[in-house]
Amino acid sequence: MSPRNKFWWFAAVSIAITLIIISSLFILFWHQLSLEEKSLLISIFKQDFVYIFSAAFLLLAGLGFALDAIFNVYIIPTSKLVEETSLITSVNPSHRISIEGSKDIMRLIQIINEWADRYEELQKNIDQKIHIAKAKSEEEKNILAAIMSELPEGLVICNAEGRIILYSKKAKEFLAEANTIGFPGYKTESGSGRSLIGDQDKFIGLGRSIFNVIDKNLITHSLDEIADQLKHKQTNVASYFVIVGKWNKLLRAEVVPILSHLKKFTGFIIIFNDISQQIETDRRINSLFQSLTKSIRSSLTGIRSTIEAILEYPDMDKEQLQQFRKIIHKESIILGDILDKTVSDYSINVKTQWPLFPMLDSDLACSIKTKAAEKLGLIINIEKSNEKNWIKVDAYSIIFAMLFVLNKLKSKTEHREFTCKLERKGQFINFDYIWQGDPIKIETLREWGKHVLIINNEEVSMTLKEVISHHNAEIWSHSCNNTIDTVQKRSYLRLFLPAVETFERDDIRNITILPESRPEFYDFDMFNQPGQSPEMDDRLLTEITFAVFDTETTGLDPTGGDKIISIASVRLVNGRLLQDECFDQFVDPERSLPFESTQIHGIQPEMLKGQPTIDKVLPLFHRFAGDTVLVAHNAAFDMRMLQIYEAKTGVKFINPVLDTLLLSAVVHPAQQDHTLEAIAGRLGVSIVGRHTALGDAIATGEIFIKLIPLLAKMGIYTLKEARKASRKTYYSRIKY
Amino acid sequence: MNYEFSKKILIVDDEPSVAVPLQFLMEQNNYNVMAASNGEEAIDKISKFKPDLILLDIIHPGFDGFEICQMVRENPEWQNIKIILVTTQVRDVDIAKGMAFGADAYIAKPFSNAQIMKQVKKLLQCN
């Protein structure tokens, strides 16, 4: 009940009791009077009825006005004063009270605000000291976090129940299954290119079960193996299995237990390594070996049988002998070819596993220039275009190969200075090394191609041809002009490298920047989390995993045909919003978008073209939400929206729900305004992206985090208590 | 040379450099020899030539050596034909597979003439 209602109920009851007492006294007094006295009083009452009635009416009216004044000047301000003072002492020390009231109340407010200034300053000082004290340990944590996030291995740490308490960036890349629902234009609302977990079919995140991404039986089997090893007191305890990850990559998983100081099993680590490449290389080598042995065996059989026949039957006729000689000759040639082919296949299949990395053509030319000056004493003048072209190279081997060529060129042409001209021709980049004189003959270049690269005792164990073919490149020489005058004649040696339009940034490791705050995928406190299936209702709000969500719609009438056009959610684990683990998706509403709604959320109809329909999005969101508790602002509306789609999508959200609107009314009953903006303003939360689903979901999450300690002050700790308190509030009567 | 009463050998190999010296060797040892270079030709010659022994390579065009082996063993009229698998496939599993399909012997390439003659004579004597 609101303070206003409570006050007027109290006033009405007080007046009624007063009237009953006065009436009782009057009746007692009346019975003690004689008949004459009674008739005298009646005659006086009749005679002065108008005056008596007027006096009574004025008295009651005066009483009413006095009560109203007391209510507005003392009762309401006092009630608000309590709530707002509580705000200052709990979640928003910057909040200042600005309430109208009596002189005494105003004086009290002034004192409280002055005290709040001092309190805020004091708290800032304390916070600063705490911040400094924490900085050192945080720095260590952040270094660890940065290392973890850049580890080449995928790493997931789980508690004993299989809940993820830590994961590395690589693990997310390896395990999160690519979206398979196959619709075009499936992208994020933000358009920032951020990789959202919501894009994926399998979710990996803090507090989620690892069994969501890896078959439970596999892990259970590994843990049984580990338990067995521990029983036999083995020192190196681990178990292995192989799974197929994202993009059908083969991942080798190593499971290692985490034991407490009492040797009790408290969790496990899974380390993932991508072994696809290794297996493919092994397969190629094996295939090469098999092919080699079969071919050699076959040829040797012919040679051996034939020679033995010649030896055993020296009198065989000449024709037969000639035929056998031809067989021996043919098979010996085949053996040579087999050897050449094996060497070549080995180079292509094994040596060329070296990856290529993006590089600017001008950077490569400059590197060759510098090295040529250092190692060969050559002067290279670079003529480059203004255009920036990317190529993919193994810088060491290609630079070495070009130095090898330039060294040969130096001997052949006796020039010490060359011009290097960079030019793009279609999909290729020309690196032309120009000199005055005749071009290099094809046979000479072919001969150079067979040589293993050696310069001044430094060697790369590949031939020029191998390096060139590894880069899908070509090399040749030609004259620049058709003149036969040797003085005028200029020639070039061209390295012809394929250009890369846009290189994949994934190939480049990001610079490691230590985050200012603790990275979100860390929370070691979760080791102390309760099991997976305790009674949700009795769990503390501070321990529950929430999915805070919001929807944007075509209008405000779920039953009247309005549809969801955007849905976003962010997970809240251990009192922290995990903004890296969010779901953010536009939805094609399959109906027109009213102009009025566009005015509010800014979503234009063309932004929804090609987006998935709700029957594709809701199952994904359902998996994202999992077994969390849903939180929304004005949740009744959003839940009704979701409910409307139950029949169409077959997706039913049975998760417990909390509403920040109702919870705000629980903690601040004297406040009239419980809009998202008003609550955010009171609690010191700034909203970025109001009326975008993700922006509102994040703001709702931050508000919810601030409401939890305020609820605790009122004795509301568990989910059940929060729901019970919500039900009592006035706003819970709103029905959609 | 009288081939009428001599034993008949069919050589199945698509490599002339293997088949020709083998054929010469067998002929020098007074066997009546025929050669086939693919699976289909081999089956055709088995039914017409009715060999006492087949020197059978595993990998060649058409039916492979294992299939031919199986066909021979499934035909009651060909039960007495001896089969020697002569092949480059020398893994234990290949040998086991060949014997399971009904081969009487397995010779890995490259082999000596003495080695193959010993095996041929041994099997044909049993016959």
Proportion of residues in extended strands of chain A:
15-25%
Q: Tell me which CATH architecture of the largest domain in chain A applies here.
A: 2-Layer Sandwich
- Extract low-pLDDT stretches of chain B: none
Number of helices of chain A: 20
Q: What is the CATH C level class of chain B, in words?
A: Alpha Beta
Task: Summarize the structure in short.
Chain A has 736 residues and is α+β, with helices and mostly antiparallel strands. Chain A is 48% helix and 18% strand.
Description:
Chain A is an alpha+beta fold and 736 residues long. Chain A folds into four domains: 3-103, no CATH class; 277-352, Helix Hairpins; 354-502, Heat Shock Protein 90; 534-736, Nucleotidyltransferase, domain 5 (2-Layer Sandwich), CATH 3.30.420. Chain A is 48% helix and 18% strand. In chain A, helix 3 packs parallel to helix 4, helix 7 packs antiparallel against helix 8 and helix 18 (676-683) crosses helix 19 (693-713). Chain B has one domain (8-126): Response regulator (Rossmann fold), CATH 3.40.50.2300. A five-stranded parallel sheet of chain B has the order 2-1-3-4-5, with helices on both faces. The longest helix of chain B has 14 residues, at 113-126. The A-B interface holds A 293-295, 297-306, 308-309, 312-313, 316, 320, 323-324, 327, 330-331 and B 15-18, 20-22, 24-25, 28, 59, 88-90, 108-114.
Task: Provide tags for this entry.
heterodimer, A: 736 residues, alpha+beta, Helix Hairpins, Heat Shock Protein 90, 4 domains, seven-stranded mixed beta sheet, five-stranded antiparallel beta sheet, 18% strand, elongated, B: 127 residues, alpha/beta, Rossmann fold, five-stranded parallel beta sheet, 5 helices
